[in-house]
Design a protein that fits this description.
The chain is of the alpha/beta class and 252 residues long. It has seven helices and 14 strands. α3 packs parallel to α4. It is globular, with a radius of gyration of 17 Å. The protein binds zinc ion (2 copies). One zinc ion binds next to loops.
């Protein structure tokens, strides 16, 4: 599977780092995890076709992970000459249906086109994995917002985990156990921790305990994005450490 980091930033407005979005191309399908501001334009900048999106998965409902859902669906209706006919699958953690219907109450007239939108509310603990084209999706609770979950994709070539926003989380460590690549948030430096988020030492702890081969750091507030990454993580983790940038492509 191929992984494209579309947005590696946060709510802090920085043109060089769009808000959270990661695309996974697996089994011929384009899967989109989170849709923060700038994600749709970021897909185009990264050489991706936003209209090729088949499935959207949200980790939680903070605006820096969700607001471009409105832009993407609006663009699917009015930003292309070829109206979509095939279904779009949109999933998120419980209470996703309440969140989604609230957005549709405001913008539904412009977001809903002539194609089916199939929503799915995921229970916080995965009791039944989703069988996708060429891979299997599982998830587990993260420690950030009450609804927060992290995702894992297992394919023939390897496993990929995306934490979304989280602080140290035993359930995310368990989810990531033995995976090849862990895309993990690293919001603030060790001398300025923020509840609900990770610092470099927390990233190293989670990466080490889960036994992943490679961590890819993302979701940077300006204070942690000071040129001292990845060394700050490498102090506590022996595997490969990469610092995401918008447009970074990875293979698993
Ligand atoms: Zn965030
Ligand atoms: Zn958040």
């Amino acid at each position: 599977m191929e992984i494209i980091i579309v947005g590696s930033g946060t709510v802090a407005p920085r043109p060089e780092r769009r808000q959270s979005c990661v695309v996974v191309e697996a089994g011929g399908e384009m899967l989109v995890f989170d849709l923060g501001a700038g994600a749709v334009r970021g897909m185009v900048a990264a050489g991706l076709d936003p209209f090729a999106t088949e499935r959207i998965f949200f980790t939680h409902f903070h605006p820096d992970h969700t607001t471009d859902a409105a832009n993407l669906l609006f663009a699917m209706n009015y930003g292309t000459d070829e109206p979509r006919t095939r279904p779009l699958h949109v999933s998120g953690p419980e209470p996703f249906e309440t969140f989604w219907s609230s957005i549709l109450n405001v913008w539904g007239e412009w977001m809903q086109g002539g194609y089916p939108i199939k929503t799915r509310e995921l229970p916080h603990t995965c009791d039944s994995p989703l069988e996708l084209d060429g891979c299997v999706l599982t998830w587990a609770p993260a420690v950030h917002r009450p609804e927060s979950i992290a995702y894992r994709l297992d394919g023939e070539s390897g496993s990929f985990v995306y934490t979304g926003d989280t602080e140290y989380s035993r359930s995310v460590v368990d989810l990531a156990r033995g995976a090849h690549t862990l895309l993990i948030e690293c919001s603030t430096p060790d001398d300025a921790p923020v509840p609900g988020h990770l610092t470099p030492s927390g990233v190293a702890r989670m990466a080490g305990e889960s036994g992943v081969e490679r961590v890819v750091l993302t979701h940077f507030y300006p204070a942690v994005d000071d040129g001292r990454l990845p060394e700050a993580v490498e102090k506590g983790f022996d595997g490969e450490v990469l610092v995401a940038h918008d447009g970074l492509r990875l293979r698993v």
